[in-house]
Amino acid sequence: MRNARQAPWALVALTALVALFMVAPIALSVMAGLVNNYSVGLRSGLTLRWVGEVWENYGNTVGWSLVLALLCVAGNLVIGVPCAYALARSRSRAARLFEELLTLPVAVPGLASALALILAYGTLAGFRQSFAFILVGHMVFTLPFMVRTVASAFQKDELLSLEEAARSLGASFAQRFLGVLVPAVLPAIVAGSLMVFTLSVGEFNLTWMLHTPLTRTLPVGLADSYASMRIEIGSAYTLVFLIVILPVLWGLQAVGTFIEKHHGT
Amino acid sequence: MKHRLQQFTRNALLALGLAASGAAMAQNAICYNCPPEWADWGTQIKAIKAKTGVTVPPDNKNSGQSLAQLVAERASPVADVTYLGVTFAIQAQKDGVVGAYQPAGWKDIPDGLKDPAGHWFTIHTGTLGFMVNVDALKGKPVPQSWADLLKPEYKGLIGYLDPASAFVGYVGAVAANQARGGTLDNFGPGIDYFKALQKNEPIVPKQTSYARVLSGEIAILLDYDFNAYRAKYKDKANVQFVIPAEGTIVVPYVMSLVAKAPHAAEGKKVLDFVLSDEGQAIWANAYLRPVRASAMPKDVQAHFLPESDYALAKSVDYAKMAAAQKAFSDRYLQDVK
Amino acid sequence: MSVRHGGFAPSRALLAACAAPAVAFFAAFWLLPVALLLALPARQGWATYFTALTNTRYLQSLLQTLGLSLVVTLATLVLGALVGITLARQRFPGRQLLLSLLTLPLSFPGVIVGFFLILLGGRQGVVADLTEAAGWGRVTFAYGLAGLFLAYLYFSLPRAIGTYTAAARAMDAALEEAARSLGASRWRVARDVWIPQLQATTVACGAIVFATAMGAFGTAFTLSAKFEVLPITIYNEFTNYANFALAASLSITLGLITWLVLWVSRRVA
Fold first, then answer.
1. Contact residues, B window 155-214, toward C, CB-based 8 Å cutoff
2. For the purposes of burial, counting CB atoms within 10 Å of the CB of B102, is it exposed (0-12), middle (13-18) or buried (19 or more)?
3. Which CATH architecture has domain B126-249+306-335?
4. Which CATH architecture describes the domain B28-125+251-301?
5. Whole-structure pTM value
6. Inter-chain contact B165–C21, Cβ cutoff 8 Å?
7. What's the pLDDT band for A3 if we cut at 50, 70, 90?
8. CB B105 within 8 A of CB B240
């Protein structure tokens, strides 16, 4: 969208200030993870030693967090997209009630949801001590986001006509769903997936209670390292987090932009 | 179709879960509250792996979190052993989440430092005092007494762990209380002390803050002698340990076998090891006082403050300390703002 | 979310089949467990459900959390809108990179945000170094209310900036041009053209920012602020000899209030 006017300098200054506030700590943290001694600062020289220690002690948490996040997205797609369709089309009271219930996991504190899960399923030892337990917690927390995003896209009027047209041409439901509906809401699906991935990768409130010493995720390991290790290690861990997460986020964003450009609507 | 989808999903989840946990099941003993940087658990864990073959993953919970997690999981425990401050262990016994086990070396533990049936037993003790990062004081004198900490010159420089959730926090509170004339029946002086301390804007973390002292973020921390000695001799930081002039207390840290532990055999091996000569020597080298006193080498003893200073450190009735903890926590959270 | 179009409607059986996996999953792994949780406070007596309102310490914590969340939400919406719209309209090299850096913190756990604030405003922080150089002594703000507020702002702004940037791109330029060509001042353009168009976005964004702030735990945990928020109170009860009944009661209260605000915001939209 082109705009002939330059924004007033006050807004530019404000934007610059906010940008500085948001980006400066990231830069500081990256520096802290790469210097020999944080209190001395850059003068103490750069080193990869802390990154090495982080990788040695916490390397597996990075992989697991990524896997969990991707599985969370996949799971949400499989159960969330059809559900979003149902909620968008349904006029029943049950549907409205379920929509309302879906907003609850966001309102209830993570600690409580986690405690609830442990009380309900803690006795299934194999389940409890596996990453599947954490995956379930993540999915339950992120499902509302996926469903809400995709459901509002399913409600567009053009979609209804499209669907009607396809049905009248004899397409089965599966054909309509996969061939017409899903492609039509693809931008929303990608946006929802990005949101779910982001939420899962940084999820702490639930995971903190659900994890066991053998099933740690990155945020839990990070909290551990900040508490008991030197600040250089905590910062190096943050750096590793950024290095791993940024490409994935950018990749997903690029996919989203690509789809939006070639999509129309 | 929906049923098949659900079945598939459930099976996939279980498969994933079993795959993840199956690999982990081999020769593991889960310990709650075994942080690598505390009491040099890192070295202890390595030695346990080398000598007994049992892998103990590190865990950063504090005593309060460990107890809470044990109680939440009592129907199907995840942990095999746990390391707790003594008052939390006494509570754990009341809650029925710890089992009885008398490890090898049991006889060497003095009577007041173990549960007769073996629900918990001391593995080492520590003395509470001031862990001071002298550099971070930027020239101010090192405080020597509880009263010193109230002086305005130390504003913003003090930290202590949360007395309501961390054991070391509660120990600090009991120590300050005793030093200021209170008893386990009367926490008035202690509460008044913490109220007065708020004027100096202390930082009150909920978990170990060793790193923050080293970095200078917290210049004076109410912490144990072993953490201070480690900072001074292992990490070569300019840290001093001070036993406050009005007195302080000595407290035991204990371990227990978790009731219905999933890997009880491995858990017992771990408990046997920490009480063995080798295990106790590792504690001694980390500047803790091993419960089996014979294990303390002379050169390590030389690094401690002189015994005359340690005469100011007293033990207390730990059972009574445990009984008073809840009421004190409530009162602290209510009164100290 | 209601269907406005008459005519074609898929069969109820089909819709039920589409929703079934999600409903089953949600029922099994959230509704059922939370129902069990709801029963917990009753163990200590029915009055336990109301502890948040009857006990002054908990009530204070609840009100503080509400207050902080509301203020953070307002500040976030205003700042987010201004920054989002500015960024949507200004073209400069590196704009896309800046935008992705600004929305990156959405993926951060609260613990990182807490430590970022300590890096900025702790005793060894950058701000302390600057103020010391300026002769004002070492100014530390990370552990007080200011630090907590800034930390909450830090994890809330990315959501607002992302939302408003997208919404600003979708805003109707023609309306604005028309208003300007009729001589409307910038302020009037903002009030009469921008705000009505952004209303739905604002309410939706505000709701999620508010809910996140109400439930935020990791940040306050790391900053160990004296300004107690309810999630920390819940944690305290949890670790204070495993007082689950009380922790559950406070969680229910927090959940209800947050849900109520979300519900009202949806009616208003």
1. 156-157, 162, 164-165, 198, 201, 203-206
2. middle
3. 3-Layer(aba) Sandwich (3.40)
4. 3-Layer(aba) Sandwich (3.40)
5. 0.88
6. no
7. very low
8. no
